[in-house]
Amino acid sequence: MAKFQVPGRGDVSANNQAIFDNLENGLGFVPNLYAALAYSDTALENYLQFQGGSTSLSKKEKEVVNLVVSQVNECVYCQSAHTVLGKMNGFTEGQVLELRAGSASWDTKTDALVKLAKEITQGKGNVGPDTIENFFAAGYTKATLVDVILVIADKIVMNYLYKVTNVPIDFPVAQELEASSV
Q: Which of 26, 86, 122, 136 has its Cβ near the most Cβ atoms within 10 Å?
């Protein structure tokens, strides 16, 4: 298998160098998985535009989906990154673990989002009518359903990129879930 080094600023195109500079200024570093996108002259910019696009989901709701999808896809890099981001958006460590395990006992609306995201991801797009009805009954709309699918697609891209490149995890590594809770 090819070994993927994390490209540095001097290893990428001028456009990607400018993006690295912006990430460095905004985040304080360039996450290794973002750097891996910079192997392509266009992928990093395209991905960041897609990821940062307008959505009906709050940042907190996006993190719910990110955590669930990363758990289903067993992506330790994304579990780790989104554990940090989930906490930054107000979730406790216990809530992050519960979300990754597939529920949100503290809030029925969040629980409906978790269940939908998990079922869509596990079913590769197939989801039962009860799950969708529960999602709508919790107050979500068809527009939100479409936005959830886009967030799932976003996270699948990064889950797969990590699995193929296996770049070093540059976030505190997420706690493993107990086998009985997944």
A: 86
Torsion of CA 108, 110, 113, 119, to 10 degrees: -80
Check: CB of residue 127 under 8 Å from CB of residue 120: yes
pTM: 0.94
| Whether residue 179 has pLDDT greater than 90 | no
Q: Reduced to 3 states, what is the DSSP secondary structure of residue 153? A: helix
Task: Indicate the SS3 state at residue 66.
Answer: helix
pLDDT at residue 58, rounded to an integer: 97
Chain position carrying tokens 């907190």: 60
CATH numbers and ranges of domains, the chain: 10-51 (no CATH), 59-170 (1.20.1290.10)
Angle, CA of 58, 62 and 63, to the nearest 5°: 115
